Structures are given as C-alpha cells and as structure tokens.
Amino acid sequence: xxxxxxxxxxxxxxxxxxxxxxASLDICYPKREVIVNMVFTDYRSKKTCECSHRQSRFKKxxxxxxxQIVAVLSLIAAIxxxxxxxxGEPGTSSNPGGSEGSDKVIKIGxxxxxxxxxxxxxxxxxxGVEIAVDEINKSGGVNGFDIQLVAExxxxxxAEAANAVQKLIDQDKVTAIVGAVLSGETATVAPIAxxxxxxxITPSSTAPGLADIGEYIFRNVITDDVxxxxxxxxxxxxxxxxxxxxxxxxxxxxxxxxxxxxxxxxELGATVVAxxxxxxxxxxFRAQLTKIGGKADGLYIGGYYAEAAxxxxxAKRQGMQVQILGGDGFYSTKLVELGGDAVEGALxxxxxxxxxxxxxxxxxxxxxTERFDYEPDMFAANAYDSMKIVAQALAESGxxxxxxxxxxxxxxxxxxxxxxxxxxxxxxxxxxxxxLKVQKGEFQRxx
Length: 447
Hints:
Elements: E1 2-8, H1 14-28, E2 35-42, E3 47-48, H2 66-82, E4 105-112, H3 119-138, E5 146-153, H4 158-170, E6 176-178, H5 183-196, E7 199-202, E8 217-219, H6 224-238, E9 243-249, H7 252-267, E10 271-278, H8 286-292, E11 298-302, H9 305-317, E12 323-326, H10 334-339, E13 347-350, H11 359-372, H12 378-397, H13 401-409, E14 414-416, E15 419-423, E16 429-430, E17 434-439, E18 442-445
Helix pairs in contact: 1-2, 3-12, 4-5, 6-7, 12-13
C-alpha cells in the first residue's frame, strides 16, 4: 500500500509527523508493509526534500500551519482507521476475478488527466482505449470475456494519480492499467503498480528510465532520448543546420528532450548557441527568444504543442529566421490551429502518422474521427495499440495478473497502427521513429 503526502512546511517537522503517521499505521496495518512518500517543501528556503525512493517536485504547494498539519494527519488517521474493520487485505490477489460478476468481465484501468491543464492528452488516451475496447468486445471479447474500462482522472497531479491507481488496484481490482499519461505522474504511480503486481503500460510517458521501475511496467511509446537524438541527427545531417538553440519546458519531458538533443548535436559537430527554459503554462517567451536572437538557424522546442505554437508565433514576430524543430508533443492538430502560419514547415518526431494509407490505420482514424469529431493524435494511437496488446496477452494468460505480465513480456512484432511493437527485457517498446512536417496546415511524412 502506498500513501503520497505533499506538505509545505519546515522539514524540521518531519520527525514529529513521521511519528504521528506511524502510530496510525501500526494500529491499522500491524502486519502489512505500508510505504509512505512524504514530500516536505520548506516555504522559506524553497528546498524540496528527497522521498524514500525518488525526488519529487510539484508545480503547486499549499502553505499550512502546524495546527493545519495536525488536522490533515488526523483526517488521514481517520481514513486509515476506517480500514481496520476490513477483514481482508485489498489488492493482494494475483487473480482479480473474485468479486460478483467478475466471471463475465475483465476490468482494465486507465489513469490520466481528464480535467485540468493537460486534459487534452488524457482524453485522447481514454478515447483511444475506448475505441480498442469497443472493437474487442464487438468481436467476442477475450476468450468470451468482455473488457470493462474503468477510467480515473489524475488531473495532471502526481498525488491524484497515486490515489487513482490505488483505487483501481484495491477497489476496482483491475487486471491491468493503461497509463499513466504524463511522465511525472507515471514516475509516481509505477512503483505502486509494481508492488501490487499489476501490469501498467503507459502509451505516452517518454522520460527515460520509467520502464526500469519493475517487471510489471511497460511502455508503448518512443522515448525522449531516442526521439531527441534522432531529431538532432536529422537536423545536422539531413538539413545541414549548424547553429542550434533549444528552449524547453522545465519538466521531466522537456529536460530529457533538451539533454539528449544537445548532446547528440554537439557529438555531430553542431554548435548549441543557446539553451533557455520555461515553465508549464507560460504565455510570454519573448525574453528567452531575445537572448537567442539571430544566432541560431534551428530552434528545438522541448515541450508540448500549446507552448510550441506560442513560441513559434513570438519567434516569427521578433523576426527570427529559424527552422522550428520538436518532439512528439507537437503531434496534435491544435498545433496548427494555435500556431497558424508560424508553425508552417515545422518538423517533429512521432510514433504515429494518421495519413498512413494502410487499412488498419485508416480504419482507426475513421472510427475515431466519427465518434469524437477530431483526428486522432499520437496519444490516442498509442493508447489504442496498448489496449490491443494487453488484449492479445490476456487471450493467452487469462484473467490473471502474474500470467499476464509473462505474456506481455513475450510480445514480439505486434502489428499495430503505430508500427510493429516488441518489448525489450526491461519493458521498453522497440518502435520506429518517424519525422513529420507541417505542410499547408497539414502533417506530412518527411522521413
């Protein structure tokens, strides 16, 4: 069992808070290991302390008084005490099919931001999974079992994601989870799924190392290191760019793209003339672009389409003559809607191309567009394939979590709409990277 707490107070309070929480846990779960990740942020020094197994940083914190801390922990204690009356321990069964009606369905969880600033990504993932589930059930399900999707909203917050995953495992008793969506929330929830022995496959979290968390964690998306290095190689070798600037989102995704792009560009002999950062949700990038000035012939944007569109527009207004480059976070029709002619000619890496003329791709695009009234993006496509991969593994394993993990690890060359997919020993997907270009307001394959 995992509990995630985020407190904005002096780390000097940590010992006392630990003691109070431990007393509650000892009463409720005397024979069970409970892992508590407590993030203490000192509001005076802005120092973030390290958790038990990772360092976490959150966009927003809440300043609280000692009295409020006691109130919060009292509430947590009450929640824990409410579990004392339960005779069984949730989430410990390898076979989740013990509840009423479970002989008719296999429950699959989905977690991601369905509301909030990142809702568009989570909704696309959910929509892609829904299309896959509908197709699976219409064709007879998995060995006669229907798939039941249980979707939970993380709101783009790691603590919310942790609570959602714990619910999916302990209360809903899902057999597997498609998610999480953002790299930061996946880093938080993957250890929970791993410890519970529940397969989790993220269709979109690209930060390096996530699949290394454990044998139950899989990833069906090109990683940041691979795509950033391939874009750097394309920029230098194919486009002949020599002076490159980077502007990146100061989050897991953006930092990984920046680090790998700059490293590969330098390795190939290009000059990185400037590296600038921004925060999620920023609207004004003029200061960073002014620092870059006219020194660059290529501008790599390590972030998502919303900020990329604004950066491209502001760069154009400032008279910068640069080739816009980016990662798979660009892949949404909203890039063109928001960026207009400023993103014309932009190049970015992707693992899916909706313009692919193959029958399976066009069938998916048609079904998705008809149902949701917009063209599927990379998030939706990878989610669709992820659900189909889980279903194929379930057909061999049955509704058993441990057996499912073994079948997932054995997947080789699954012929999905995002190309052939195999998993390495650590659960990383082996997939091809493609490069797309904005031409006349539409995405076209460049490589």
